[in-house]
Amino acid sequence: MQKIESLIDYFWGDVIFARAAVRTTLKIILALMLALVCHEFLAFQLFSISSQLQTQLGEATKKANIVLAGTAIDSRFGNDRIKICFGGIASPDQPKECQSALGTGNGSREHSRNLSIGIFAPVTGSSQEVANIVLYDITSLWGVSFPEIKGSTDNILRQLEKIAFNGAASPVTELKLCAGTQKLQTGGNCAVTTRIEQVLSPPIDTIINKVRIGALLLGPVQFLTLSIFFYSFIELVGLWFRWVAPPPILYVIDRAHSEARMDLSGISEAVPKFAATSNRNLGDRLLHRGLAAVNVDANTPEVEAENFAADAEVISTLEAYRVFLLDDATSRQEPLDMLGDTMLKLAFLGTVYGISAALFAARGLDTADPLLKLAAKAEMYSGIGVGFGATLVGITLSITAAILRSNLASAWTEEISIAYRLILDFNVKNLRAVAKRDVPGTGSFAPVHVPSWTAMDRFGLMALVLVFIGVGVYLFGKLQFLERTGL
User: Fold this and answer.
1) Domain ranges of the chain
2) pLDDT at 166 over 50
3) Which of 208, 227, 206, 27 is nearest to 144 (CA)?
């Protein structure tokens, strides 16, 4: 128990600046670790494709290819028909061409995971992938996953219509698709893609809806906001255990009467315990100040009456110290207010970033290619999702932190108010009598001596050094990479 108290006092007690920097670094590292675990756990739940979903995708692929095989879409393909398959899943229901597409995608980002669909058509006597539509891309930045929705069933169908219903040399202005172009397909061609849409939409929509939720809740801005929230939560819990939770040692609250009363019958035995502890109850601190205010010297048998402080002076001292404790509580909780404001500002920053990304993506609409327009729209929607997601997470966590902070402030103030009322009800005259009879010299109230340099300080300093070394190694590696690639 003593070790736990020492640890709490180390992280949330009064320390010098150097030690404060070390303990802040340790708390930041802990907050980042908690945020990373929470963030990646949610990412795993939202972005993992279960075996059941993989089976559904494989079955959907098989049914879609049956639709394609049973329809004379384009005579230029002869007996070898167009086939589609999903990349990134393993299912025996997919055609053999899909084996080469497992895990494929745009390949433009390192450490990315995605789900894509490939369209295979006969090229120079063999079936080759002629199009690859990435439905979503999950990028990992320093171990933090964030998704980006890039396509949908509509993208797949329009790409399929471009390949199946239009010649290879057809200009983009002359493309005939079932939607999204001035010249639309006629006849029964669109009925084929409609049947394929009915087959592919259920499993794809299930996956995309999960990724869409992930795009709202997960990302770099959301991760940073979550880290700040966990740091705020760590600070809040620590302050409560350090300043509010410790039970009184010098007195006992007697609740046997209609109103609670202060019982100081065991104060003589409690004083050594009070002197030995570093995590002191707020009521004990206020009572200690009151005992000091009556100006009793236990080593002197007889004390002249004029040496005692007047009752009004004792009450004035208690009132001044009560105000000091309230001001001290406010000052210790000010960082929590700052962290709450920071979460709100990050939410606004994420909104600006998301809308800016959507506006930059809108430049892709200045093209005659309907497929590129679809891709630009998907990128715009993704940017808007990032902005609103960052706002949603920031406001939600900020409100949660504000509620917890309000509860801490109320409990802190209530602890001080209850102790102050109990001391006043006990009466200054009775307090003076107890101090003269049971309390030894004021030396017993001296604070516990804390070594200037502890094992925790050394550990924190080592962690701080390792963080700087890690950042330096990472930046050096990036510079080396840029030099090799000439970027």
Assistant:
1) 51-208, 225-450
2) yes
3) 227
